[in-house]
Specification:
mainly beta; Immunoglobulin-like; 2 domains; globular
């Protein structure tokens, strides 16, 4: 057989193997978990209506948070009091209700008031939140923002119990926080099955 014919066959075999590998990876990827929430926030407070947690094609964790109305980075700035934020509460080891989240993945406004920053936060020994990594922030619409981050950054858990929250800038009251699902409920996303899955 001519050399160029063998090369074509080898390339075709490689392409077929890659296609099968991609198909297998897609089949193994867990379906994303979607939480829908009614418009129930207090007057003037941001209102979460949908949260989705899943994996990207490169196996990063991807979250999409949707608000009832469009917003921009400047809307998270407070003239007085704490800034506003959109966060994911993630329980990867501890149990919701029995302990604070193991991680918070949050979106806050940068100092330029035009762009946002994604941060992975973890409670320190004194309870204060410590930034342990970054998350990539994206937008799919004026109402929906996405967060992407590596599984390694949160300890590569087999399961994540999660809830999303949005806080109104300048307000520290509970009534200024909207969660999805409504607290104290959480949703569960399984990244992989384990032989001894915890209840």
């Amino acid at each position: 057989m001519p050399v160029h014919g063998a090369s074509r066959l080898a390339l075709a075999a490689c392409a077929a193997a890659l296609a099968l590998s991609a198909a297998a990876s897609a089949a193994e990827a867990p379906a994303p978990v979607v939480v829908k929430d009614p418009r129930d926030a207090g007057t003037g407070a941001p209102d979460l209506t949908r949260v989705q947690l899943g994996l990207t094609s490169d196996r990063r964790v991807r979250a999409a948070l949707t608000l009832a109305a469009g917003w921009v980075a400047k809307d998270l700035i407070a003239t007085q009091g704490p800034p506003g934020s959109l966060c994911l509460r993630l329980w990867t080891v501890t149990k919701p209700g029995a302990a604070p989240p193991d991680f918070l993945v949050c979106i806050t406004a940068r100092q330029d008031e035009e762009t946002t920053r994604g941060s992975i936060l973890k409670p320190g020994p004194d309870g204060a939140l410590v930034r342990v990594g970054g998350a990539i922030v994206g937008r799919t619409s004026d109402r929906t923002v996405t967060l992407r981050f590596s599984q390694t950054a949160i300890g590569r858990p087999a399961r994540i119990r999660f809830a999303a929250e949005v806080t109104k800038p300048g307000c520290a009251r509970v009534s200024c926080v909207d969660t999805a699902p409504n607290a104290p409920q959480t949703a569960t996303f399984r990244l992989r099955e384990t032989s001894q899955a915890r209840p």
